[in-house]
Specification:
Blueprint lengths: L2 E5 L4 H16 L3 E7 L3 H10 L3 E5 L8 H25 L3 E4 L6 H9 L4 E5 L6 H6 L5 E4 L13 E3 L6 H5 L4 H12 L9 E5 L6 H6 L13 E5 L5 H8 L5 E5 L5 H7 L2 E4 L3 H10 L3 E3 L9 H11 L3 E3 L7 H13 L1 H10 L8 H16 L1
Parallel strand pairs: 1-2, 1-4, 2-3, 4-5, 5-6, 6-7, 8-9, 8-11, 9-10, 11-12, 12-13
Helix pairs in contact: 1-15, 3-4, 7-10, 11-12
């Protein structure tokens, strides 16, 4: 296989694993083209350029019961199909890989019409509606996790894991080294000897996590904890105001690219439970308190969290259960039993798959070779 097209438009949960596969394939001498549909395409194209990966955008939107929006969806589907078909003809790939979402409808149907082998990837523990529909056109679907409804797919499924950024997988280090790097990068004064808690709510942040997961008052037992807080855009100043009233050390940022440093520095992680997050936690072997996003499509974050919890690496706290008091009590219990929680986090490494990008590529290569 010399040429591969990857359709990974839509949210970051589709784009980032697609980009990771593209980078791995390109590093091996392959030629790759990203097809990006949806409102995030311009920003995603900028990111792809940083890695010298060629990309192009096409119109895409999502189906809706609203007649006006459905008309828009159908118009975008037809115009996107024409643009993707032209691009596929010009690029002449050996295969097309789609990372899910209805933004992949046009590339998948265009590839199918040209008799180019189509493959899919799903990033959650429950197959989404888009992938279930697109599976009728696919030779096989790569799964990130043991999937609850895999039997509903109309193509073979193969578990490969969730493709993670190469630098994140390769960037694991000791807590002391990670703390030193963070202090250097952000002019901090974190201590490698203090219990360290990483708290974040995904790329956009999470109001429940930012507002409710705060130590209540100034209890003696939790005064020595230091926090790494990634708030999401536009939410940093309000969180700083909250922490100004508390007697604990905190490094607070809107976002950060160096997630390998934050995971390596942390003794405990508190976060949402997207497919990438639970996969990263397993790779780093970190125990987590997970708050599944309650409005995720088909409640897939709950299923993702259950996957990690079943391996011993997480406890689940729902949004409606979160409060400052309960969070403080939970932290006090964690402080008294840190070694037990650390060991449980380490157990989750048994379900990690740091080589997922390569496994997806191997799946495509093996099947396309068998078709020749």
């Amino acid at each position: 296989m010399k040429k591969l097209i990857i359709s990974c438009g839509g949210t970051g949960g589709h784009f980032m694993p697609g980009l990771s596969i593209a980078r791995t394939f390109q590093e091996q001498g392959g030629e790759v083209l990203l097809l990006l549909g949806g409102k995030n395409a311009p920003k995603q194209m900028e990111t792809a350029r940083k890695y010298n990966i060629v990309s192009m955008s096409f119109p895409a939107s999502y189906p809706s019961g609203n007649p006006i929006r459905m008309t828009k969806f159908l118009f975008h589907a037809m115009s996107g199909f024409a643009k993707c078909k032209k691009a596929i003809k010009q690029f002449q790939p050996d295969a097309v890989l789609a990372m899910g979402s209805f933004a992949s409808l046009a590339p998948v149907t265009a590839a199918h019409s040209l008799k180019i082998p189509v493959f899919l990837h799903d990033g959650n523990t429950k197959l989404g509606k888009a992938n279930l529909f697109l599976s009728r056109y696919a030779r096989a679907m790569a799964l990130s996790f043991p999937t609850l409804n895999a039997k509903q797919a109309k193509c073979p499924t193969i578990q490969t894991g969730f493709p993670l950024r190469p630098e994140l997988v390769a960037g694991q280090m000791s807590k002391a080294d990670a703390i030193a790097e963070l202090n250097k990068l952000y002019n901090g004064d974190l201590s490698p000897d203090k219990p360290t808690v990483l708290v974040f709510g995904g790329s956009l942040g999470a109001e429940t996590i930012n507002r409710k997961l705060i130590v209540e008052g100034d209890p003696e037992e939790t005064r020595d904890i230091q926090f790494l807080r990634l708030t999401g855009p536009g939410k940093l100043e309000s969180l700083k105001e909250i922490y100004a009233k508390q007697n604990c050390k905190v490094l607070a940022l809107e976002s950060a690219q160096e997630m390998h440093l934050f995971y390596s520095a942390a003794d405990l992680v508190i976060s949402r439970s997207g497919g990438s997050t639970v996969s990263e936690l397993a790779v780093f072997g970190k125990y987590a308190l997970l708050l599944p996003y309650p409005f995720a499509a088909e409640n897939h974050q709950e299923d993702n969290a259950q996957w990690l919890a079943a391996a011993g690496g997480a406890e689940i706290l729902h949004d409606h259960e979160a409060s400052e008091h309960d969070f403080t009590v939970w932290l006090q219990n964690w402080l008294k039993n840190q070694e037990s929680f650390r060991k449980r986090g380490e157990q989750s490494r048994t379900i990690a798959n740091p080589d997922a990008s390569q496994q997806v590529l191997d799946m495509i290569k093996n099947i396309t070779n068998s078709l020749k």
